[in-house]
Each structure stands twice: as structure tokens, then as C-alpha cells.
Amino acid sequence: MKNFEETVHAFYSILSQHQFMEAVATFYDENIISTDNNNEPVKGLENLRQGVEKFMNNTTIEKIQLLSTVIDSNLSAVHWHYIFTHKTFGKLDYKQLSVQR
After folding, report:
1. CATH number at residue 76
2. At a CB cut-off of 8 Å and minimum separation 6, what does 4 contact?
């Protein structure tokens, strides 16, 4: 990627194509700290990879829609609409705001 904005758009494109594992392998740093609401942070690329893999192995994706984005300097924010069916949690239909640096 040539610059931050191109990198962010490439990341969003991969997620929109349901390629979560490729996104983790391509765009996340070894020292990633990922937080989701009030849950304990996930620290380290391998821990993130395992968590994403476990979720995806138990999930059918019905919809991933990018609703809006803001990209500025080295910070991006995105608004997604996800619909998943998870083997344990059932149908998950939610909108999520994500912020990346």
C-alpha cells in the first residue's frame, strides 16, 4: 500500500469479502491490542488470530455492509452492519463502529 488511506480501503475491501483471516494476517501488527466493548483486551496477533478463527468456524455470514467511513492522518473509523448466524449465539444482527490506528 502506498499510503494510509489506500491501506484502510484495502482492509475494508477484504472484510467486505468475508476474508477475516486474510485481514488479520495482512493488516495486524504482532503487538495488536484489540478491545470489544467491556471485554478483556485481546493482546498479540496469535491470540487475535485464534479468536477470529474460532468465531468464523462457528459462524455463517449473511451480510457485511460498510455504511460509512472517516479516514484522517493515521486514524480511521468505520460503521459496519453485520448479520451472522452463530452456532452458539444464534442470529446476530448489529451495527458496529470500529476505530483503527
Report:
1. 3.10.450.50
2. 71, 73, 74, 76
